[in-house]
Design brief:
The chain has five helices and five strands; from the N terminus they run E-H-E-H-E-H-E-H-E-H. It has a five-stranded parallel beta sheet, with helices on both faces. Helix 4 links the parallel strand 4 and strand 5.
Length: about 130
């Protein structure tokens, strides 16, 4: 049996990290949480991450900056963005930069799971025929 995907959650809000962590672990995912983009970039889990779920607005390095940095370094893990401050311009930038989904907090767990399923399918290269 294959190892469950590793999901990295990057959000400066502890309650959001805990809620997503609990949801994803209950569905069998391996989950690591990070309080900042910088902490994630320094972690030993960077290379093994199958999907990043990141807050858009964080101090020092935003979620969009994290995505840009990771792509410039050659990392292709899909991104799902979450935000308490939805803005159409930021949403458009995130999606054009390659984000799979852009969810406004609070969001239903089923919406995050649907985005995660799409992201992981894309990361694996889609379903084989």
């Amino acid at each position: 049996m294959s190892t469950p995907p590793l999901i990295s959650i990057v959000d400066d809000d502890g309650s959001v990290r805990a809620a997503i962590n609990n949801l994803l672990k209950s569905r069998g995912y391996i989950v690591h949480t990070f309080v900042s983009a910088e902490e994630f970039l320094r972690s030993p889990h960077l290379n093994g991450t199958s999907c990043v779920i990141a807050d858009v607005q964080m101090s020092i390095m935003s979620g969009l900056d994290l995505l840009t940095h990771m792509r410039a370094q050659g990392y292709s893990a899909p991104f799902i963005f979450i935000t308490a401050f939805p803005d159409d311009r930021v949403r458009a930038r995130a999606l054009s930069a390659g984000a799979i989904c852009f969810l406004a907090k609070p969001f239903a767990g089923r919406h995050l799971i649907r985005c995660l399923d799409t992201a992981l399918d894309k990361y694996r290269g889609g379903a084989s025929a």
